[in-house]
């Protein structure tokens, strides 16, 4: 079963600083793109999650910068679901750039998300969502 979701994004000028280097906080936006596309392709769209009555805000994040990305680079965002419980899930990310024949790792990290209702109270994820997420975790079957 496929465990790593891959999507691409092109670095736009507005994502860079005066030196044409991607500003560090923009990698969290790239993480969100990876997570959004993984969810849309494997689980359901975020708008469908909202219709179910809950949201998944980020409660923790970590980034480790290895090399810079630059204006107009085509980045590869790899996203995996690392773990899931009744009230939270964790996504791991790797952002890469094609460097000749190989892919160069630029950033790696993770985000953790808690399930809350519209009033801000912790809530349980629906069983079908947990099952779909569990099918895509890094755990072996």
Describe this structure in words.
The chain is an alpha+beta fold. It has a single domain (5-134), classed as Thiol Ester Dehydrase, Chain A (Roll). Helices cover 23% and strands 38% of the residues. It has 3 helices and 7 strands. The protein has helices at residues 26-43, 46-51, 127-134; strands at residues 5-10, 54-55, 58-65, 74-84, 88-99, 102-114, 116-117. Strands 1-4-5-6-3 form a 5-stranded antiparallel sheet. Strands 2-7 form a two-stranded antiparallel ribbon.
**Averaging pLDDT over every residue, what do you get?**
91
| String of helices and strands | EHHEEEEEEH
Please state the overall shape, judged from the principal axes of the Cα atoms.
elongated
Derived from helix and strand composition plus strand pairing, the structural class reads alpha+beta
Kindly report the CATH topology. Thiol Ester Dehydrase, Chain A
Q: What is Rg?
A: 16 Å
Proportion of β residues?
Answer: 35-45%
CATH class: Alpha Beta
Order the strands across the largest sheet as they lie in space: 1-4-5-6-3
Number of domains: 1
* CATH level 4 superfamily: Hotdog Thioesterase
- Separation of the first and last Cα atoms: 10 Å
Beta strand count:
7
Query: What is the level-2 CATH architecture name?
Result: Roll
How does the major sheet shape up? 5 strands, antiparallel
Count of individual helical segments: 3
